[in-house]
Write a structure and sequence with these properties.
By secondary structure, the chain is of the alpha+beta class. Helices cover 22% and strands 42% of the residues. The protein contains 5 helices and 10 strands, in the order E-H-E-E-E-E-H-E-H-H-E-E-E-H-E. The strands form 2 sheets. Strands 1, 2, 3, 4, 5, 6, 9 and 10 form an 8-stranded antiparallel beta sheet that branches.
């Protein structure tokens, strides 16, 4: 499938559905070496006068090494009616252990110096603008309560990445 660049401001996307319900792939690295993971936490909005996306990656995730080592990352959105099983697999299995992209049947595509997938209906190419560790000390409620206890029993906290959306591509 060919990619067609569109103005990100022209997109009619509900982030609560697209990210929270349908899920997205967070991918970083170039054509020779890249990794991806499924994410259902993130956001889209405006910050510092620019369209931005946020994503959250646990310290233990292999994809974090690629995002940390790259200036760019992509958020790729696939049709969940077709790709739900593969999206679940990509969120469960580590790229350290196997070629999970190949096993999921996805076709990597080089775009703007980073990677997306031919099967994506929408790809946002983001330039890292900010990253911060979301540790227990940042919770307004005391650590060990509410969200800290629910989401971080193993203390594998997230890093939040804010990326300025440089390009948006839709499948043609």
């Amino acid at each position: 499938m060919a990619l067609k660049e569109v103005d990100v401001r022209s997109l009619d996307i509900n982030p609560f559905t697209a990210i929270g319900d349908d899920w997205m792939l967070v991918t970083a690295g170039d054509a020779a070496s890249h990794n991806t993971m499924t994410a259902s936490w993130g956001g889209l909005g405006v910050l510092w006068g620019a369209p931005v996306a946020t994503c959250y990656i646990r310290q233990s995730r292999y994809t974090k090494e690629f995002v940390d080592g790259s200036d760019l990352f992509t958020l790729s959105f696939l049709d969940p009616a077709v790709w739900r099983r593969q999206l679940s697999y990509l969120g469960r299995v580590s790229g350290r252990d196997e070629d999970k992209i190949k096993a999921a049947g996805l076709t990597p595509v080089a775009v703007d110096g980073t990677t997306t997938f031919a099967e994506a209906r929408l790809t946002l190419v983001c330039r890292k603008a900010y990253a911060t560790y979301l540790g227990p000390e940042g919770f307004v409620a005391q650590p060990g309560t509410a969200d800290d206890a629910r989401w971080y029993q193993d203390h594998d906290y997230h890093t939040m990445y804010i990326g300025k959306i440089e390009h948006a591509y839709v499948a043609e």
